UniProtKB/TrEMBL annotation:
This is DUF4230 domain-containing protein. Pfam families: DUF4230. Keywords: Membrane, Transmembrane, Transmembrane helix. It comes from Dyadobacter sediminis. The chain crosses the membrane at residues 6-27.
Length: 223
């Protein structure tokens, strides 16, 4: 067998082997129903900032959000799309101490607080699930619709959290922390706030009266 014949035989075997492997892989994947997906992510850090934010209260919320949208087509057909969204959120409320204004009294172990900031939501960790999605013939959900729904649901969750007792809990917690910390180091804290700032602080320091009736358990002696 000359060299040309041998080279042709080797090339034929290689091509046949590669082709056979490809055919075998195709049928194997088709039989197993295997799907191959590719993922690529790019993380960009825009900026890093130093902050002094302290969490003082943590709350968990569940929101059931009904979305409906009607589209009138030529005043003949009412095309509706709707969805039920259940949102769960973990809300952290606290203070940004960079907004706190104070000054020490020279020659004394005393600090005067001139301005006390409002409690604020430091983060909301949300989880959304869509149920009962119905779409019309022409009035169908688009990517912008889902974005708008999630933004509105998040804003509603934000409002409900600020209307709850979380800000009041945070207000009491932060004052207790500041005064106890100062006392542990033999310092005194005095509040010299403006009238509006004082009223705001009092609002966030007092709890609302709970509108609920409590049935106390009766013991055998009371019966």
């Amino acid at each position: 067998m000359d060299s040309n014949t041998l080279l042709f035989l080797i090339i034929t075997l290689l091509v046949g082997g590669v082709g056979g492997a490809a055919v075998y892989s195709f049928f194997l994947n088709r039989k197993a129903g295997k799907s191959i997906s590719s993922h690529e992510a790019t993380v960009l850090i825009e900026r890093i900032e130093k902050v002094f934010k302290v969490v003082m209260a943590e709350g968990y919320f569940t929101e059931i959000y009904n979305y409906e949208n009607d589209k009138n087509i030529w005043n003949l057909i009412n095309d509706r799309k709707k969805a039920l969204i259940i949102a769960k959120a973990k809300v952290l409320v606290g203070y940004d101490f960079s907004k706190l204004k104070f000054h020490p009294v020279e020659g004394e172990r005393r600090i005067i607080i001139d301005f006390f900031p409002k409690p604020e939501i430091l983060s909301i960790d949300t989880d959304y699930k869509f149920y009962d999605i119905e779409q019309g013939w022409l009035n169908r959900f688009q990517s912008d619709d889902y974005t708008a729904i999630l933004n509105e649901a998040k804003q509603t969750m934000n409002d409900k959290a600020m209307q709850s007792d979380l800000p009041r809990i945070a207000g009491n917690q932060v004052q207790l922390m500041i005064f106890q910390l100062a006392a542990s180091m033999n310092w005194k804290i005095e509040l010299q706030l403006s009238e509006s700032n004082r009223i705001m602080l009092e609002e966030y320091a007092s709890y609302r009266i709970t509108e609920a009736e409590i049935d106390f358990l009766k013991t055998e002696k009371d019966k």
